[in-house]
Every structure is written in structure tokens, then in C-alpha cells.
Fold:
Amino acid sequence: MMIHMSKVSPLHPRAESLRVRERLVEGFEASLVVPEGLAAHGRGEAFDYILGEQTTEHAKRAIEAASAMLLLAKHPVISVNGNVAALVPAEIAELAKAVGAKIEVNLFHGSARRESVIARWLRKHGAKEVLGTSVKFSTRIKEVHSDRRKVDRRGIAAADVVLVPLEDGDRTEALKKLGKRVIAIDLNPMSRTARAADVTIVDNIVRALPLMAKDAKRLSRAQKTRLHDVVRHFDNKANLGATLEFMLGRLKNLIK
Ligand code: ATP
Ligand code: MG
Structure:
């Protein structure tokens, strides 16, 4: 990927958001990201605007629960698509290492070429092993229709906990039907993904992933019973409700 000097003025009020867009455009030029990925990011940005482009206390609690759940999992897997690879490749590798998770490339708009470009990009950023690119280990989940149901037998197919940073509702619901515990990162607290997941982190992945890697390292030294407590005390529905309240409060303040 060509890394060009940022054209964004640091004085611009949305400087960070514009830099993130530049990273996605670079990812698009490098064949990691598809045009639909650019549009999906735009939908996320709208919700981030309402959140004030900050990690809420509710998101922090979800991040902690998610880290604990990943550490307790027997077979945790992190599912990566083009946007995730373009935005947080090193953080994915770091988190996978901290919780002992496998990384699997899993695309909504799949192609063998893009799968291998993404896998190579992740390895370049420190990922040891990247699943999801070998036909030999490919299998299908019948709960999902069309060509989007391909998963790796060593990865998502065998997983007990799956982290899906940016996932479509159909596939999240399918993972739930298969009996997996699902952790989602989604800026939209109303999406089907956000509602179907066991732990939903309503935050931008560029902020959430580094915090998760940090939490995972901290909690990896904790007792198992403490990790179970963290997971047990987390109520996703209540947390999503509190996030919506937070957004509503910000909108109400604008009216005043
Ligand atoms: P669903 O299929 O779950 O009902 P959807 O169809 O509205 O939701 P998709 O297009 O399937 O959404 O996935 C895109 C979603 O990913 C956006 O709605 C947005 O909330 C989320 N998203 C995009 N970029 C980011 C980001 N950088 N960080 C966190 N979430 C993001
Ligand atoms: Mg969708």
C-alpha cells in the first residue's frame, strides 16, 4: 500500500475522522477495501458524529466484558474484513496475541484475490497465522444463503466465541443460530448486528481495538473467577439502551 503524506490539516475540526477516511481510500487503492466498504463506513460515521467521536463509558464496559469473554474462550476467533484490515491491522494482531485468538479473513463481498491481499496485509502487520484463504479448509454454514457463508473449518466453524468488528446482520444472526457467542463492534446501536450480539461495543473500531488490546493484556493476569464475574455482570440489552440514552441526551443538548 502506498503511504502518502496526509493532506488533512490538523486544525480541521474533523481531522481525525478525515485521516481515517484517507486510510480507507488507501485501502481501496490497495484492493483491501471494496466500494461498499466505503459506503458502510459512512453509515458508521453518522453515528459516531452523534456520539461525539468518543468512547463512552458504556463502550468501555462492553470492551472489558468482551476482553474477558475472549480470554475465557476455548477457541476464540477474530473475523476480519477489508475495512478492519485497512483501519486496524496491527491492533488485530496485537489483540489476537493477547487473548490467544485465531484470525480469519471473512468477507461479505468475497474473492480469492482480496482474501489473500488482506491476509498478506495482516501478516505484514504482525499476524502470525491468518485463516480463511485455503480452499482445503473451507466449509459452509447453511444458516447463511448465497456465497457469504464460507468459513474456515479451523476458525469460525470451530469457534465458541467470535469477534466480528463490522459485520452484517444476516451473518451475525447465523453465528448466533450456530450457538456461538458473538462480540460485535458497531457504531449503530440499532443494527441487527448490535442487537443479535452477546456483547456489543458501540464505538469506532479505530478507538475500540487499541483499548481492547490494552484491556486484554491487563485482564490476562486476572483470576478466571474475576473474568467470569466481569462477563456475568454485563447486560448487553441494558448497555445498548444506555448508549441510546446517551445519544438522545446529546441530541437534546443541541436543541437547547
Ligand atoms: P445490519 O446488517 O447489522 O442490520 P446494516 O445493514 O445497517 O446493519 P452493514 O452495512 O451491514 O450495516 O454494516 C455496516 C455497519 O458497520 C454500519 O452501520 C456501521 O454502524 C458499522 N461501521 C462502519 N464503520 C465502522 C467503524 N469504523 N467502526 C465501527 N462501526 C462501523
Ligand atoms: Mg447489513
Notes: DSSP finds eleven helices and eight strands in the chain.
